[in-house]
Structures are given as C-alpha cells and as structure tokens.
Amino acid sequence: xxxxxxxxxxxxxxxxxxxxxxxxxxxxxxxxxxxxxxxxxxxxxxxxxxxxxxxxxxxxxxxxxxxxxxxxxxxxxxxxxxxxxxxxxxxxxxxxxxxxxxxxxxxxxxxxxxxxxxxxxxxxxxxxxxxxxxxxxxxxxxxxxxxxxxxxxxxxxxxxxxxxxxxxxxxxxxxxxxxxxxxxxxxxxxxxxxxxxxxxxxxxxxxxxxxxxxxxxxxxxxxxxxxxxxxxxxxxxxxxxxxxxxxxxxxxxxxxxxxxxxxxxxxxxxxxxxxxxxxxxxxxxxxxxxxxxxxxxxxxxxxxxxxxxxxxxxxxxxxxxxxxxxxxxxxxxxxxxxxxxxxxxxxxxxxxxxxxxxxxxxxxxxxxxxxxxxxxxxxxx
Length: 381
What we know:
Elements: H1 19-46, H2 59-68, H3 73-85, H4 98-114, H5 122-141, E1 158-163, E2 169-176, E3 181-184, E4 201-207, E5 212-226, E6 229-234, E7 241-245, E8 251-269, E9 272-279, E10 285-292, E11 296-301, E12 310-315, E13 323-334, E14 340-348, H6 351-362
Antiparallel strand pairs: 1-2, 1-4, 2-3, 3-6, 4-5, 5-6, 5-7, 8-9, 8-10, 8-12, 10-11, 11-14, 12-13, 13-14
Helix pairs in contact: 3-5, 4-5, 5-6
C-alpha cells in the first residue's frame, strides 16, 4: 500500500524522474532524427535521376562535351545560350538525345524568324550556325556498322563494275548466296550484254545510303539466269576498302530541275592566264533531283554529264523561289534505254539557299500556330 501511494512526476522534482534522464531521452530522439535525415539524403543521391528532373548546369562539363563532338567556339556559345534560354533541365543531353537537340534548335530558329532589323544577312549567318550545330553533333553521334564483307550486301544494291584497264558498267545485285555474289549482267552502250571470261579480275564500287563508298576486288565465277535475270556470279570478298563517308544527311525529294554545263575559258592576262567560268544556258538539260543534302545531290536524267564536269543546278523545294547551286559531277552512270544518274558535290551555294536546303533535310520548318512561345529566346540568338 505504501508503494501504491508513491507519487510519480514525469516532470521531475521531488518524487519524480531525474532531469538527467529526460535530457538523455531527448538526446536519443534527436540522434534518431539526425540518422533518418542522413539516410534520406544518401538515398536521394544514390537514386537515379528521373528524366526531366532538374540538374545543376555545369558549364565546364557542357563545353568539354561540345569540344569532344568537334563544335567550334561560336557554335558552342550559340548552343549554350539556347539551352540556358530554354531552361533545358539536363543540358548535356542535347548531345545524345536527337529529339531534345531538335527541339532546342527549332526554338532558336523560330526566335530568329521573329526578329526584325539588324545587319543584312545577320539572321542567315546565325541560322547557318544552328544548322551546322545539328550537322556536327549528328555526324559525331552517328555510329554505322563497318561493311567488312560482300556477303553482307543486299539485293537491289547498285554497283559499278570495272575490269582492269576497261570501261565501267552499272549493275545491281540480284541475290547474295553463300558461295557467290549474283549480279545482273551489265549492258554496253549498244544494249548487248557485256560478258567476261571466267576468272577475269574486276573492281566493284558501291555506295551505301547514309554511310560511305566501298571498293573491293573480285573475279568472274560464271554465268546463270537467276530470278529470270541474266546474271554474272562474282567471288565474295572480305577486304572491302571504305572511302570517306558522307558528311551530311540526305533526304529524298523528287523535284524537277534544270542542269546547265559550266564552261571554263582561259584568258591570257599579262604573263599569266585568267580562268573565267560561264554558264551555257543554251545547253541545259532536264532532270529530277532524287535526294538532297547540304553537301550535294543526286540527279536522275536522260543524259548525265561526265564525271568531273562543272554544272549549275536550278530546282525548287517549296515550289516558290528556285534554289541555285554550282557543283561538280563526282560520279555518272548511264544505262541504255533508261537514262542514267549523276551525283553532284556542291561547290558554291549562297548561305540563304544552303539554309533552305538544311531546313528541308532536317525537317526544321516554320513554327506552327499555337506552338512554343518565341519571346523566351529572342535575346539569346
């Protein structure tokens, strides 16, 4: 009964819990809270950052990545301004995410469209830098599998076959078998089949889409009719030599064009000779631009010009003002009864026309109604 009458005072004092015990209890609670906070911070740091979640902008890391991709200083400055103005939450992702890069660059182009005033050609110069950013990053990020064997070639691939010391002939792959590459028998200018003796050494050239040109050596194994096509059987090769790859993306277009030969005359001037180029508008030809890039185009025509010929090309993209470009024929193929084709490398294009070509190739058209606001990036372009 005496024990039941003992007073219990939680606040201490006479008959209560000592003050030191309360202090110890509070210290334990505080320690537990601190441990919980530390564990929470560690878990947040270890947890993967969700896409779109904010991250601190590291200017040095951004510029190191830009340099690794080969961006010049002016292009790096432009891209950095764009990611800052558009508040890109993870800026370095523009180097590895094509969609984020395109979205960022499009906003820059839309801002340029809304600008007024300024020196003539200034907008075109800055637009050219934006398109070059896209070209350089895409070129650095694109990874194509190297073609090492003719056994990897697909039916329909266009080829150019050249015997040692002879003329070149256009052909295509009909089928690819384990023991031979089956190619359509080439035709000469008269339309007759061109046949070589078994064992004749040949040089074969091809160009893969969005890759590069390849050359390999082979020899004739025989002749057969495959899939209803008169074909020559060629020996496979595992030694394909890769040429310089295409630097720019190409896009199919199918637009009618005029092609003019460019004549170069040598005019004596003092002790030297001055070379003067002129466009022969009386000898223009008709054709179709089948694909287009910032570096050149492919043209289908009934009468292709010879390799090395200088030409001027006129065509349109938006069926408005024509695009005019000067270039050099890099390759030419003729097929009797079906005309031929030629690949032209641009040598002189105005900046305005080159920007129009890049806009088409990359699909960077004008901003659509109700699109992203343009004022946000005006001051940074």
